[in-house]
Design a protein that fits this description.
With 444 residues, the protein is α+β, with helices and mostly antiparallel strands. Helix content is 36%, strand content 27%. It has 13 helices and 18 strands. It has helices spanning 2-21, 83-101, 135-143, 194-206, 217-225, 228-233, 265-276, 280-290, 313-316, 322-346, 369-377, 402-412, 434-443; strands at residues 23-29, 33-41, 62-71, 75-76, 79-80, 107-112, 118-127, 154-166, 169-172, 182-193, 210-216, 235-240, 245-251, 254-261, 303-305, 319-321, 356-360, 380-383. Strand 1 and strand 2 (33-41) form a beta hairpin. Helix 7 packs across helix 8 (280-290). The chain is globular, with a radius of gyration of 23 Å. It starts with a helix and ends with a helix.
Length: 444
């Protein structure tokens, strides 16, 4: 158990060292693009361990001094599938961001979308006997949570206390310093496939970089794309990427559920490519420039010049009606949104006080997608883009950078996790984490 805590704390310690040096890189490993932001901290970032439990970053305390993006290589469904290709892509994007920032970076904090995330809700109660709530009591109640059997080959990525209750008073963000008879906690635990994380760790090490933190893209997208009220009252962030569509649900400013649909914009591009008999690059251009999912009466007359690169002039000067393009794109978009609906229903999303849905990610920019999403998901839907970070370079202000910007906020001010508190040495019920101990010991 101690190894597990120490390995996670080692990453937190590494993050603090990087922040004290003043520079850290953010790496968002996507299926269609890999993004890198270089952050410079000005000293107002909160570097101490005295964080309020679960607080989201308000004052970011950093500036983005370098930004770069490159086409993703060797990544499928948000997971590394070809180590050497991904290593080259990471080296390329980090070097480009460093060049813009005019500074060398040694530490990176990374996020990725795949690895089949699964959410668990844990809870526990301990007696206080009228004593004050201290770090020890919080560690004790966290250690009392009974960890479910989440299966071999899976590891814990996040384990965050989302609610504390002191006697009959629930909804406490930070109960430290208060008196009571009993302390209860609700904990959200997110597990992922261990091999996906191992491959990411190894790839970053091969790039001669130090990993100072790791997070789920579903989580970081929600941090940056949801406004305060949405995070408080209940909202879902749907990050529509290239290879995956990530889903996160927030309540009381905490993520309480996350999942992934293994489909995204690349699948729409592939459908266009096959349907029109054009290259993937041409299909991507057509999707971006002329694509849509809502048909109008004028679409039959709106002819899109396909173009091409076959060398056959007659073949390359073809055109296709916008109605036909919509007919190819819409079924796949509907399939993705129907899968999202299934996940939201399974999570009990319709029981939250508010059911706002925020679409973000590059694929969310398809014309008319928000209207179709509102019909399929049956909720209030809006398009979101990254917020809370001022002075972003124009190139990284779009919806496709929600997870990267959210990861910047996570780097500056991470929410408290289970391992931020000293585990009581006399507890034996928490040994269910032994599998995680072994893996973290081997890899970090």
């Amino acid at each position: 158990m101690t190894d597990f805590y120490q390995s996670q704390r080692a990453m937190r310690q590494m993050r603090r060292q990087a922040l004290q040096r003043g520079v850290v890189a953010i790496l968002d490993l996507g299926s269609s693009k890999i993004s890198c932001l270089v952050l410079r901290f000005d000293g107002s970032a909160r570097l101490s361990e005295d964080n309020s439990i679960g607080s989201l970053a308000g004052q970011s305390g950093f500036r983005v001094i370098g930004a770069a993006t490159t086409r993703s290589r060797g990544v499928q469904f948000g997971e590394i599938s070809a180590m050497q290709e991904t290593e080259r892509a990471i080296r390329t994007v980090v070097q480009a961001a460093q060049k813009m920032a005019e500074v060398r970076v040694d530490h990176v904090i990374a996020c990725f979308a795949g690895a089949t995330p699964r959410s668990y809700g844990l809870d526990a109660t301990v007696d206080l006997e009228g004593h004050e709530v201290t770090e020890n009591e919080i560690a004790r109640v966290l250690a009392a949570c009974e960890v479910p059997e989440y299966g071999a080959g899976r590891e814990v990525m996040h384990a965050q206390p989302v609610n504390f209750a002191l006697d009959n008073r629930s909804g406490l963000g930070d109960p430290r310093g208060q008196l009571g008879q009993s302390l209860a906690v609700d904990l959200h635990m997110l597990t992922v496939e261990a091999s996906a994380v191992q491959n990411l760790v190894r790839c970053i090490q091969r790039c001669d970089l130090e990993l100072a933190g790791i997070a789920s893209s579903a989580y970081t997208s929600g941090i940056s794309a949801l406004v305060e009220d949405e995070q408080e009252l209940g909202a879902a962030c749907i990050d529509m990427g290239g290879g995956t569509t990530s889903i996160s649900i927030f309540m009381k400013k905490h993520m309480i559920y996350a999942d992934t649909v293994r489909m995204g914009g690349d699948h729409i591009t592939s459908d266009i490519s096959m349907g029109l008999g054009v290259s993937a690059a041409t299909a991507e251009r057509i999707k971006t420039m002329s694509g849509g999912v809502q048909a109008t009466g004028a679409d039959d007359r709106d002819i899109i010049d396909i173009g091409g690169d076959t060398g056959d002039w007659e073949h390359d000067r073809r055109g296709v009606s916008r109605a036909e393009l919509i007919g190819i794109m819409r079924p796949r978009v509907e399939e993705i949104l129907e899968e999202v609906r299934v996940r939201l229903d399974a999570a009990g999303f319709d029981h939250l006080p508010s059911q706002q849905i925020v679409l973000t990610g590059g694929t969310s920019q398809i014309m008319g997608l928000d209207g179709l999403a509102a019909r399929i998901l049956g909720q209030q839907v809006r398009l979101g883009r990254p917020m809370r970070v001022h002075g972003l370079p124009q190139a990284v202000t779009g919806p496709g950078f929600a997870s990267a910007v959210g990861l910047s906020l996570f780097a500056a001010n991470p929410q408290d996790e289970w391992w931020d508190f000293d585990a009581p040495v006399d507890r034996h019920t928490a040994t269910s984490f032994r599998r995680a101990v072994r893996w973290f010991k081997d890899n970090w």
